[in-house]
Structures are given as C-alpha cells and as structure tokens.
Design goal:
heterodimer; A: mainly alpha; two-stranded antiparallel ribbon; B: mainly alpha; Four Helix Bundle (Hemerythrin (Met), subunit A)
C-alpha cells in the first residue's frame, strides 16, 4: 500500500496520516450543553444548602429539644448528600456519563479499594480485644492523649529526636500538662480556668458541654480504658507504666 | 514500510494559525484522537492514585473518629460552617467554570474560554484566602496545632490534638492540590492567551487539568461535611 499517494490524494491531514478516521471509529467528543452544566451547578448548590440545614436541624434537635438521635443519623444524612453531589460532579462535570466506560471501571476500583481499607482496618481495630484477649495488656495506648512519661527533655519519635522542648509530662496527658502550665503562668484558680475554657470552647453555660449520645465512646475490648478517659473504669496508669 | 510522519512533516505553518490547528500528535499515535484517548486514560489512572491517597486520609479520619468521638465533636465545634460552606460554594462554582471553559474549547470560543479560566483561578485564590486568613492562621497562632505541636491550654479532650492532626493533614493535602490545580489552570490560561492552544481538535491539557480540578472539588465535597458538619 502506498500511504503517501493515498494521503495526498484525499487531502492530507497531518493528525490522521493514515485516514483512520474514515474507518468510522470515532464519534467525536461529547459537548455538554451549557444548560445541563448550569442545572448541575444549581443542584450542587442546593445540595450544599440542604446538608448545612440538615446539620443545623440535627444540632437544634439534640441541644435545644433534647432529642437523642442514633449516632448514625447525622453521618448518614451528610454522607448521602455528599455522595449525590459527588455523583453529579463525576457524571456531568467530569463527563463520565458520556465517556469510555473504562474510566468508570477505574473509578469503581478506587471505591472498592477504599471500602477494603475502611472495612479491614475498622474490623481489626474494633475486634482486637475479642480475638486476642491474651494480647490485651500488651496493646499500648498511644498519641498525646495518654499519660506521658515523667522524664523531661526531648521526645524521641521512632528513634529520631524531635527538636521540641517538652517539659516533664508528670504522667499526665499533653493537654492536661498544658492546662496545669497555664494555671501556673496566669496565677489563676481552677474555677477561673474553667470560665476561660468555656469561653475558648464557645460552650454555652446552658449546654454545659453536653454531647449527643452519638459522640460518646463505646468501650472497646483491647483498646478502650487507657485510651478513653470517659470510660467508666479506666485502668490505673500504673498498669502500663512499667512498660514505658 | 512507511513511517507515519517522516515524509509528511509539514513545512512551518503561518504562526497566525491558532495553536490548536497547528498541533501535531506525537508520531507513535495513529492520529490526534488516539493520542487524546491515551492521555486521558493515563490521567484517569493518575486520578485513581489520587483518590487512593485521600482514601488513606479518610480512613484515618474514620478510625480515629471511631476511637475518640468526643475529641472529634469538640474539635469540630471550633470550625465555622460559614467558612467551610463558602469554600464549598467557591469550589463548586470553579468546577462549573472549568467545565464551561472546556466546552468553550470544544466550540472554539476563545474569549469565554479565557474568562472562565480567570474566574476559576480567582476562585482558587479566594479559597486560599478563606482557608489561611480565617482558618489556619488564627488557629495556629492560638496554639491549635496538630499532634505534639499543640499548645492551646483549653483542650476539651485529651485527644483533641489527634483531631487537629487529621484536620491539618486532610485539609493541608487538599490545599496543596488546590495550589497544583490552580497552577495547571494558570498555565493553560497562559498557553491559551499566547498560542490559542486549545480548540475543537486539540484540548488535551485543558481537559486533564480540568479533570484534576474536578477531583479537588470532589475531595472537598466529602471533607466539608466530615470536618464541619458531623459532630
């Protein structure tokens, strides 16, 4: 075959030198009408307003009317609306509705992987104590919310020195130490501290830092206790102290 | 034996021709259409890795929320819905203008292509202004910082620093993506002004930068309720 001759004969297109487009493989790109895009934008803005209003209603029901909503209501409403918004963006703005289904499969794979991350990690964390009852005392609480060693100086994180001055933690959490420090520095009483605390946390005296039931920790075997200061019976700090 | 373009590399076309008409697909593609499809498939694979990056952050959020719901409720109370909501509207609007600018490229409407890109970039700057001026800077200066950097004496829960780690981590990486997306779109705007680079037969870069921008919007659509609304 002489492509050159053919190309010149039919009017040469440098972007399609072999005239593959004549084979009828291409249907051209989809051009989304302005009207559709505007309607999607309107729907997205409406959903944003809806999710904010729903959250405010939920807040009002819990704090002003004293309803105790099940813990999943707020999350389920907010996440459902977010999912609708995400689908609108994906389908119309990213034009996945009109595109090669291969891209949709790639996206679905992501969602599958995400479900795997969430599901497996969640199951593991939630059931550690059940599966490994014998391991329970060996699971260390972590982070800054638990009792820190009484030594002063630099904290080492994974063997590397954190260039941060950390005074003696006095076997209390980071936040507890910050509170003590503040009271000492300001020469105030504990009551005065709590007044300032309420102001800083925008806590209305009427609410008295009340939380809806949804936001209370559930005791978890193998994890709670030392991690959760609100748990009814937190094990004494001494039980883990020897292992630090 | 033939090679695709060895005999056909055209002589330099008049530079008054718009860039999208002068564009030649790389020689290893059958035609420009195939090149567009290949670029786009590659970009969707990249977007998949981006989704997985944020999936890790969402997973951290879910697990820490499961362990310390009180700390998350207390931390969320510090965030003003008005700022998060405004930023949501800003990003949704910018997503719309990006979609419109791609439509303008497809219909060879060079003027409105640029106007839409300019609006998008202004939205990105507005997002940054709200994020830093009303949120990051006041919080950071009052000691509300992630993890061990936390120095605010009024924590409502011993694990509040953990919540702030998740907050700064997720919104910080998202803000980095806003910066990258806005930079890509600024580059598109420059090429559009300089070369009229995008038109009906060639707008690959604009399409992919737009997809990236939509992904940034998509992530925020989930971050907003998770951080600001659920408590």
């Amino acid at each position: 075959m002489n492509h050159n001759a053919q190309g010149h004969a039919a009017g040469f297109d440098p972007n399609d030198p072999h005239h593959f487009s004549d084979l009828g493989e291409h249907h051209g790109h989809h051009i989304t009408p302005t009207r559709t895009l505007l309607m999607v934008l309107g729907a997205l803005l409406f959903c944003t307003a809806l999710t904010v209003v729903a959250a405010e209603v939920e807040r009002y029901a819990v704090f002003e009317m004293g309803w105790q909503l099940p813990h999943w209501v707020n999350i389920a409403v907010a996440m459902s609306i977010a999912t609708v918004k995400a689908l609108l963006v994906i389908a119309f703005f990213m034009a996945l509705k009109y595109e090669n289904p291969l891209y949709t499969i790639i996206f679905l794979f992501c969602i599958f992987a995400f479900a795997l991350f969430l599901g497996l990690t969640g199951m593991e964390l939630d059931n550690r104590g059940h599966l490994y009852a014998w391991k329970q005392p060996a699971i260390h609480p972590g982070g800054t919310g638990v009792n820190m060693p009484a030594t002063s100086g630099n904290i080492t994180v994974e063997g590397e020195k954190l260039s941060m001055e950390v005074d003696a933690f006095n076997n209390a959490s980071l936040t507890e130490n910050l509170k003590k420090q503040y009271i000492e520095e300001q020469h105030i009483t504990e009551d005065e501290y709590w007044e300032r605390w309420a102001e800083a946390n925008h806590v209305h005296p009427k609410h008295d830092h009340a939380l809806s039931d949804a936001n209370h920790s559930v005791p978890r075997r193998g994890l709670s206790g030392a991690l959760d200061t609100h748990a009814p019976e937190a094990p004494a700090a001494g039980t883990h102290g020897s292992e630090h | 034996m033939t090679t695709i373009d060895s005999h056909h590399t055209p002589a330099k076309v008049r530079s008054s021709e718009p860039g999208w008409k002068r564009y030649l697909a790389a020689s290893h593609f059958r035609n420009a259409e195939d090149e567009f499809d290949a670029c786009k498939l590659g970009f969707w694979l990249f977007l998949a890795t981006e989704v997985l990056l944020f999936a890790g952050l969402f997973c951290a959020y879910a697990m820490f929320r499961m362990l310390y719901p009180e700390a998350f409720a207390a931390g969320s109370h510090h965030l003003k819905v008005i700022y998060g909501g405004t930023n949501t509207v800003v990003l949704l609007l910018s997503s719309f203008t990006v979609a419109m600018s791609i439509r303008c490229a497809q219909t060879d409407n060079q003027k409105w292509l640029r106007i839409n890109l300019v609006i998008t970039i202004i939205c990105a700057l507005l997002f940054f202004f709200i994020k830093f001026y009303f949120e990051y800077i006041p919080k950071w200066t009052s000691g509300i910082r992630p993890g061990l950097l936390y120095t605010n004496p009024f924590a409502a829960h011993p694990q509040e620093p953990t919540w702030w780690s998740v907050y700064y981590g997720a919104t910080g990486i998202h803000a980095l993506h806003v910066l990258i997306g806005a930079s890509l779109l600024s580059w598109c705007l420059y090429r559009s002004i300089r070369y009229k680079a995008y038109g009906p037969t060639h707008y690959t870069m604009l399409e992919n930068a737009g997809l990236y921008w939509h992904l940034v919007d998509l992530i925020w659509i989930f971050l907003f309720p998770l951080l600001y609304l659920i408590d």
